[in-house]
Each structure stands twice: as structure tokens, then as C-alpha cells.
Amino acid sequence: MLITEITISTDEPTEKQICELYWQEDDNGKYAYKVKEIIEKTAFNGFQINHIVKKNSAAVASWWPCSRGCKRPYRFYSRSELDTAVRKFNRGNLEPWVCTHCYANELIERGEREIAVRKKKCDYLLSNLKKLSESPIDINRLNGKEIVYLLALLRHSGSEDLTQINPIIENKSDRLAPTHLYSLRILNYLSSQDIICVSPKNDLAKIVFDEDDQIRFSPESVEWLIPLSDGTSIAQLYKDLEEKVAEPNFYKENEEDLVNIEFLISEEECIEYLYKVTNTHNLSFSVGEKTRTVLSKCLETYSVSQTFSFIWNSGRNAASFYMSHQVPKKYAANTMPGFIQRQSERALTNDWDVTGFRRDYDLKQSSLSRVVFNTVLRTDDGGFDRALPVPVPD
Hints:
The protein is mainly α. It has 3 domains: 5-98, no CATH class; 103-245, no CATH class; 250-385, no CATH class. 54% of the residues lie in helices and 6% in strands. It is built from 16 helices and 7 strands. A 3-stranded antiparallel β-sheet has the order 1-2-3. Strands 4-7 form a two-stranded antiparallel sheet. The model has no long low-confidence stretch (mean pLDDT 90).
């Protein structure tokens, strides 16, 4: 039966006898007594016998030690448990186990590691904030791009008391930028310029260290702080930024930055609309450099609303191509950039009057767009219905 040792923890004669009879083996390694026979010898019922055995005895099996370093043998408290383990042992599929002592030690070690990691995360965030606070931002030294991005972020995700910047994903009713990718670029840019930093108040589960001991987190999911000089608050900075972009000369002084941002907003709005059109027709599409180049070229002549018209027609054409030729959806969707390019070139060559679309209800004007077109340029979503100046290449 592979029993190495029997341990009995009671000195009460009857209980001790029951335990001995229960675990006793014959010369063939079988149980010497059936439970029925033990009942007859002791006048206890089966339930009572099992209770006494489990409470006061155990069969020790050295062939099934703890899988951790202590190698403690497993202790069985019933025949059925032992029989099951013996069958698995003979078949070679006995699973490893961990004794309570080792398991408790592992929990303690795990807790200590988690505490150490949490301390490491806190130390990193606090030291980074302290370092940046030694060189706090000065609004008069920010360029136009930094000012517009920071103001858009504060409008979008500034907490109600303006003490921090909430995770941008928490704002479900507004968008920081036309696309999620552009929103991440804004966060990464402001962070790289030391204008914002990850708040030490974040849930530390959002922060991880990779195998190279580099900190990692999802920019859209964390809270941010702005390193400011003593006596300066985010609320005051917010007010100063609003006043700065409202200055009559702000656009002229930062024209190069703002022209680039205007054009990028328009391009990203077209990309977002293109994705919506492909989803409407249940097509699969991924925007790459070719599509960006086509949209950028189209926007050199036409407004976003007019480009939406080309995009919508390209989606309808791709869906028709898919249905009539039974081609893969991705193949059909890949015809869209070429269709947009051909149609926009024909419209330009033939001097067509291209009717623009209205802004899609599901793709509302973003926070960044409102800062640039509504506040700085003093228009009502002016970047949507009119063609914009083309950025000068670097």
C-alpha cells in the first residue's frame, strides 16, 4: 500500500485501537480489516470511525514529498485519499503539492516582494516628480505646440478641482484628439518635454517594471501632474493658458506650429471617419502610410467635409466590389485609397463642385480641435468646412 509510517496522536485506548485497525496492513500490503469488520470489533458506526481516524491519525507517504525544498511527506487522513494517490502514482500522473509550511512561507515572500515592488514604484514616481519640480514649467517658455496640447489636455481631463489630470479614458463624452493614436502622441509628447509626469497617487497596479527594469504604463490609463513652482497651481496655469491662446498675436507668433497641428487634426479626422465607413460596411482595413499620403494630398485642396464625401463613396464602392466579385473583405477595403485618390484628382481636373458632408454625430469635434479652431482662430469648427494651409516641409 506504500504506507511509510502511521502516526497516531491520541492516547485514548479505544480511539487508538480504531486508528491502528484502520491503517493496519497484511503481508500482501492490503488493508488488514475492512471498515465493516472494524465496526463489528468496536461497536462504532462508519461515520464515527472515519471521524476518529481523521482527527487522530495519518498515513505518511515518503514517495510523495512536498514539491518545494522541505520535502515533507504527504499525510493521508482516509483510505480513499490514499488509494487515489497510489493509483495516480502507479500511472505516473501524480501531481506535485506544496505543504502548508512552504505555502505560508511563499505567501510571506510574495508579500515582501510586492511591498518591495510597490516601494520601488513609489520611489520612482516621487523622485521623478521631485526632479521635474526643480525645473518647473514656465508658460512664457512654452512653444505654441506645447501650449495648445497642454490646454486641450486640461480642458479634456483636468479634474474638477484642477489639482491633477485624470486618465483620458475616463472622459467618455469627449475626445482629446480625433483619434486614440493622436491622443497618445499628445500625452507622450508632453511627457517627453517634462511638462507632465505620472502622478504618485496612481493605483500602483497600473505601473510595472519590465525585464530590463524600465517602467511601463498605459498613458491613457494613468493620472498626471504638472510640475509647477511653489505658489503656482494648475488652476492658475489653466487660466494663464486660456489667456495666452486668446492673445491677438498668438497665432502669428506660433504660425508654423499651429499650421502643422491644423493639418494633422484634419488628417486624423479623415482617418477616423474612414475607419467608421469601413466598419459600417463590415470591411477590414488598417491605415498605413499610403492611405495617409492619399488623404494628405486630398486635404491640400479640399476641406475635411469634402474629403468625407470621397471617403464615403470609396466605402460604398468597396462594399459593392466585395459583393459583386466575392473577394476577401480586406482586398475590397484596400481599393478605398485608390478610389479616393482618383475621385479627388478627377474633381480637381474637372473643377467639380464637391458637396461636403456634415460632421458625423459619433465623431464630434475633439478638445484639441476646439482649442485650435474655435479659441485660437475664433471660428465655429472652422477646420471642418474649409481647406487649410498646407504645412511647409521641414
